[in-house]
Amino acid sequence: xxxxxxxxxxxxxxxxxxxxxxxxxxxxxxxxxxxxxxxxxxxxxxxxxxxxxxxxxxxxxxxxxxxxxxxxxxxxxxxxxxxxxxxxxxxxxxxxxxxxxxxxxxxxxxxxxxxxxxxxxxxxxxxxxxxxxxxxxxxxxxxxxxxxxxxxxxxxxxxxxxxxxxxxxxxxxxxxxxxxxxxxxxxxxxxxxxxxxxxxxxxxxxxxxxxxxxxxxxxxxxxxxxxxxxxxxxxxxxxxxxxxxxxxxxxxxxxxxxxxxxxxxxxxxxxxxxxxxxxxx
Length: 281
Ligand code: PLP
Known about the structure:
Elements: E1 2-5, E2 8-11, H1 22-26, E3 29-37, E4 40-41, H2 44-57, H3 66-79, E5 85-92, E6 109-116, H4 121-126, E7 128-134, H5 149-160, E8 165-170, E9 173-177, E10 181-186, E11 189-192, H6 203-215, E12 218-221, H7 226-230, E13 234-239, E14 243-250, E15 253-254, H8 262-275
Parallel strand pairs: 7-8, 7-14, 11-12
Antiparallel strand pairs: 1-2, 1-6, 3-4, 3-5, 5-6, 8-9, 10-11, 10-13, 13-14, 14-15
Helix pairs in contact: 6-8
The structure holds pyridoxal-5'-phosphate.
The site of pyridoxal-5'-phosphate has 13 residues, from helix 6 and strand 13.
């Protein structure tokens, strides 16, 4: 397997990471996960734009143009012969003697690798259960930061209790999932939290808005409460790996009749068309 290491493609055994890499010690870096369908990077431009935007927000400069970076990711996927899978790529502020403040002359460290992944077809067909949990993360959730402890602890609790995902809320307000965005549909209108500092503006979320536009589904970006979530006609989550994933039960309570909703199904079909596969009927 080939790894992208600071602009070079190297063999995994040749990858060297310092014990004082700031990603390792402080989570001082950002990342992206990009889906590969049939050998192609899906919505690569949007992911690359967000990678550069996240880096800029924490004052890391990616030392390549976006075009050069795009080509590196493309070459990595090709070299590893990834058909259906994903690319993980991160950049950290680099290695330096451990001090909280930025080091004077560390070089950013960029690592990318690929993995084959199947689409979660069964879960997408049947829907999943999610657990409401207090959102205990920091106030810059718009940055795709390597600091994921709040997300990790929430997902772990949900998972231990038999749930697929955690639905995070700040007080009464539903924000997003531990690694996904959340949507409710009521009377034919789609509701989701606006893209503020409290959520990550998902790339899948943006694709879904386009699909809603095509399908004539009204989108209202407004925060809704935990109770409103439970009272929705349909509920679903989205992410690069989960695509459009129906949520049929929240914290033990069924959403409507407890099966994937009609508009959710329509969005899944439209999403399928986007990626030009035919797995969900
Ligand atoms: N929100 C969080 C906290 C995430 O980690 C993710 C992605 O994994 C998302 C939302 C969904 O973003 P995307 O659709 O770009 O994968």
